[in-house]
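Why does residue order matter? Because the sequence determines the fold. Keep that principle in mind as you read this record.
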Amino acid sequence: MPHLRHGAPGSLESMLPTLIIIFAASVYLRGWLHLRLTSRSVIKGWHGFSFVAGLSLIWVAIASPFATLDHELLTVHMLKHLLLMTLAPPLIWLGEPVRVWSQGLPQFVRRCVARAFLPAIWRTRMSALNRTGKALVRTEICWLAAAAALVGWHIPAVFTLAMRSAGWHFVEQSSFLVTGLLFWWPVVQPWPSVLRPDLSMILYLFFATLPCDILSGFLVFCDRVIYPLYLSSSHLFGFTALGDQQCAAALMWTCVTLVYLVAGAILAMRLLSRQNSRDNEFAQPDLSVQGVPRSVQQSLEAF
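Structure:
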């Protein structure tokens, strides 16, 4: 059966995501400039760079000419999956999009949103939204959603369905991005969350590598092609179907491990710096309480 080539350059399927990404970037830029002009301490320059980089990776994965090669090489498919789940989401959250978009939307849009929540039903709607939001960002929900998307879409029958149907292909890529954003939310903890470094997040990242390790290990060491779809591909760059499968699995294994290791190291350094600051606070002697004259205390501090 011939492969369907989704999202060919110039097609509606590739142009629509491009337009959405451009719109999201435009709204973000408007809000970023507003915040930079009013208070430089609220938003930094690197926040904007991070957000734009995340959007660029999403565009590469779903709307660029490169994206159409996933029907020829499993390695390209795996790279798209890594861009949507592992690389783009943390960059998006590091850009503080909620804070910036709240300032970037046109004033009439913000008025329409405000009018939609009339005072009489404001509390009811907001309480429902809060409960839903808190349930979605619970660590166990985020972990399970990402693991289910990773494993579920790589079941051979489901994988073939997504590759041969434009509709299911869209659902697959959307689920990769959405579950990736969910997974990285408790790690990055962007606004309106309050950043609280926690040892459990390091364990969260460690256990998140397990589904990836199992899947990539199986694909690397399997001596047959798991996805027959690629047996009839054009074998770009001289890849055999089995060699392509092993390369894709090795790429996923290496990239996910490296990204989670870097994220875990950053969280560990934050935890250590926070602990050191607390230790320094407790270590400062209160000489005035012990009856030491102020002049002697100042001399000791100068020394």
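Residues 12-275 form one domain.
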